[in-house]
Amino acid sequence: MKSEIDDILNKSTFSKEDLVKLLSADEQESRKIYERSKAVKAEQVGRKVYFRGLIEYSNYCSKNCLYCGIRAGNSRYIRYEMTDEEVMEAATYAFENKFASIVIQSGERNDRKFIDTIERLLKEIHRMSDGRLHVTLSLGEQTEETYRKWFAAGAHRYLLRIEVSNPDLYKKLHPADRHHDYNERLEALRRLRRAGYQVGTGVMIGLPFQTLSDLADDLIFFRDFDIDMAGMGPYIEHEDTPLYQFRNELLPLRERFLLSLKMVALLRIMMKDINIAATTAMQTIDPQGREKALLIGANVIMPNLTPVKYRQNYLLYENKPCLDEEAEECKSCLEARIALAGDEIGYGEWGDSKHFKRRTES
Ligand code: SAH
Ligand code: SF4
Fold first, then answer.
1. Whose CA is nearest to atom 13 of ligand 1?
2. For the residues of 212-248, what is the DSSP string, one character each?
3. Residue 68 Cα: closest atom of ligand 2
4. CATH code for the domain in which residue 191 is found
């Protein structure tokens, strides 16, 4: 029988009210959303998955986001920074295994030494791969000058999650100071766009105080900002963070996972040709979480290339998987998992966001 969900899915644009209804759909009705998002993926971006080798460069962070395990205020972790040799080894592994692309992620730092080191590494990676290994950065908020400098040195994509698009909710999840300002984060996204990057953003799902109306607004935010890439995943509490005190008010993990799947599927329907990551946080809740995300709309996966000795110290959230898995094991494991999901790996292909190409060509 035709339901309200069918009627909404047949619309060309979803209103906020539509999105709240879709996000509230029960498991039975959610299948209709997934059928649609699967079809959109197959038609628009193909059943192909692109690898981005993830290098968790350093856990030094000058910020104190209330949800994050590596916040400056947490003294439990030994702070580390990978050496140039270690970064180059990971980048070379990615290049030789035809990953075609890596992501360098880290806690946020704005000092000269950090900025220069990243610039030097970008140039080195460019030289090593003759410009064929693409680099995505995820290094937080920086000045326009820094973003431009890194772009000139060879980075072309940047991931900066808005975390939540509701400014009032943002305030509840961050310390009240000028280093954690919603407008500043938004401005950083605009700077990235001006500097020429393919811009990726995203949110956490299932945070304390977050409502379905907030999540609907997040999807609308992505559409209005006309993003090229997205990375979204469930919020997972971490014992050593201030937000942990609200753990009893959270949705059960399973529901946070299902809501994250629904967010991925809806975004695929709304923004047909962007790149969407199947994030590690999804796998933290469900061992097959990333494959499930690929099946219903995601098309990017990030195998971890961080040296195993550092991984215990880059725990943004608890129960992060694959802490002892070397790059080679991780690659074989993902190959098997992706085959199970029925997708094919785009080895040797950059897998640039089709949306970015269309946006810049028009
Ligand atoms: N420092 C950079 C990049 C590293 S943090 C930045 O903040 O942009 C990368 C992402 O980890 C953050 O954007 C956030 O969305 C996610 N994250 C942090 N703590 C988390 C938690 N407890 N659960 C789920 N995701 C979390
Ligand atoms: Fe630092 Fe990023 Fe964690 Fe915030 S989310 S504390 S900026 S690593």
1. 161
2. HHHHHHHHHHHHHHT-SEEEEEE----TTSGGGGGGG
3. 3
4. 3.20.20.70
